[in-house]
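for ur thesis appendix - GPN-loop GTPase 3. copy paste whatever u need, i formatted it the way the template wanted (i think)
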Amino acid sequence: MRYAVLVTGPAGAGKSTFCNALITHAQTMNRQVHLVNLDPAADKFEYKPVLDIRDLISLEDVMEELEFGPNGGLVYCFEGGELGEGEQMAQLLVRGFRADSRYLLNNLDWLEEELGQYEDEYLIIDCPGQIELYTNIPLLPQLANFLQRRLNYRVSAVYLLESQFIQDKSKFFAGVLSAMSCMLSLGISMLCLMSKMDLIKDDKGRVKREVGRYLDPDPGLIDEDTHSNERFHNLNKALVGLIEDQNIVSFLPLDVTDEDSVNTVLSHVDNMMQYGEAIELYTHIPLLPQLANFLQRRLNYRVSAVYLLESQFIQDKSKFFAGVLSAMSCMLSLGISMLCLMSKMDLIKDDKGRVKREVGRYLDPDPGLIDEDTHSNERFHNLNKALVGLIEDQNIVSFLPLDVTDEDSVNTVLSHVDNMMQYGEDEEPKMPKDLEEGMDE
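the 3d part is after this line
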């Protein structure tokens, strides 16, 4: 399965810095993550993009050839025609830089050729900072649709709003509306991030308490805004009421200098796209249940299953319990004996090769873990607790550790699978060889 994340947000929100931090963190987890640049004005990268729109068209070329300003040049890069065509130039001027032919969208074969080679990998797509490119021009929605339908990518987006917005309440809610506009325009799952959280910490490195009212936008903030223009106060209240009623915009804090913060964001993006979980083959499509039934009834096989959940899931408690529920879903769908394994245990050993002690709480899932999850969205906390209670009550999911680099670990797993299927228990007892030879004499 292929995955792509569109990194969006206004200019100066820290999109490129976030892309770099995300790639760096993913590489420490041995994950293949690649950068795609869709900003024709970009000039420097910490990681070389595997695809760069500047190889197709650059902002400098457009500005020089057509004598456009930066914004008109950006629009042209995404929607313009061929350089040097007088008729196209006239169309651009008459239609406010809107040409019939779209430069990038008319070169989707180039995009397909460049991106079609990646399998089971993760693309981080750095988008420009001009918000009209998301809301007024159909480029990114059409690009997301192309990636999903033509190239079979799972696509999601993140929207960055910098923490400095909270210094002006009206400006903050305007930013929230821009996030909603982007979400509606793209039509895909989107995670909102409040970036540059390191800039609003106190002297002891703690985030100010009132920031929580902005992460999950509090409508009462607008009543406290003494600088708000009185003429727009009722409009502001109505807009804030809309935000509260729809309840679709909340922010996850992002501090790119904090590895735990970056890891939490990556986990949320993974969950949003069901990274590594092609679970629909087990739960939504009857293929595997029918295959198991065919092997049992038609071909007289004893059939069982193993379900692997990688050890990296324990870095995010909510993500881990989501994985446990996926395992339960698979078990119920298949309707056969199933052994759950926690794989890649070699990746969570300490310097002496020992598995960390707290891992035991995940092998036999401890409901208390969810209460310790400080990164959990408060809106989902009660739901998480109810789901964890279900897991505890049913008591049918526990994990056997698997380290494929350890022969004893692999042998233990094989023994459990053998026992699950009663392997060899229906064979005729074999007579010792020496006794068999004595009977022949």
